[in-house]
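Hi all, posting the design record for the shared folder.

TITLE: backbone redesign
STEP: 1 of 1
STRUCTURE INPUT:
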């Protein structure tokens, strides 16, 4: 082999090594992400998406007001609504739902809805939140071709593996994780900005009397 051929071969081997290392790094990053951001089981063996967040400089009252504003403004009431506001306990609770798609032979279709409970708790400089109580509500087509709930077929996510095919269950779990992360990201954005519920300094207004003039 000529010297130029050896050089080209060396460059090719070096190039391929870089690609291989890049692929390995990408797979490692994806694996680390999957381990870091995933569903877990709580003390009651229920699926839960649990996160804590630091927010230095923000007092509990401020974070509570921002969390309350999130529940009232971030989503339509059908998608998420506040069910309990505990000011003394610095906690907010709501219920919501998101769409679950089902894979078919020719594409995705609306499989049903996943109902859930969202809990937000705040302290000075930090807050935590979790989604749990996941219940799958499957759809069916009525005689007019419209989707509607299959009454009496609701199933807790913990039991869904017994009711759904393996492929549908795995798809369901994946979409629960994606949608839970989306809710969490939306909450984080609201926790960073001033809400209209926060108290602001009010300028003193001069008082006048109409009794004397």
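Okay, here is what came back for every position:
SEQUENCE:
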């Amino acid at each position: 082999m000529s010297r130029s051929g050896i050089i080209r071969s060396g460059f090719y081997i070096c190039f391929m090594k870089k690609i291989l290392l890049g692929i390995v790094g990408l797979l490692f990053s994806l694996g680390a992400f999957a381990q870091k951001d995933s569903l877990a089981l709580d003390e009651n063996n229920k699926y839960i998406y649990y996160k804590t967040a630091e927010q230095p400089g923000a007092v509990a009252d401020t974070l509570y007001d921002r969390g309350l504003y999130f529940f009232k403004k971030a989503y339509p009431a059908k998608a998420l609504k506040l069910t309990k506001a505990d000011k003394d306990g610095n906690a907010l609770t709501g219920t919501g739902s998101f769409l679950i798609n089902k894979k078919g032979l020719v594409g995705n279709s609306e499989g049903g809805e996943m109902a859930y409970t969202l809990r937000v708790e705040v302290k000075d400089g930090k807050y935590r939140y979790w989604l749990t109580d996941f219940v799958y509500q499957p759809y069916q087509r009525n005689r007019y071709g419209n989707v509607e709930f299959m009454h009496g077929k609701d199933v807790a996510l913990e039991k869904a593996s017994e009711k759904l095919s393996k492929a549908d269950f795995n798809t369901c779990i994946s979409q629960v994780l994606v949608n839970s992360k989306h809710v969490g990201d939306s909450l984080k954005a609201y926790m960073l900005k001033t809400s209209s519920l926060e108290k602001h300094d009010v300028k003193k207004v001069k008082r006048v009397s109409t009794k004397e003039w």
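COMMENT: Residues 23-35 have pLDDT under 50 and may be disordered.
Let me know if anyone wants the other runs.
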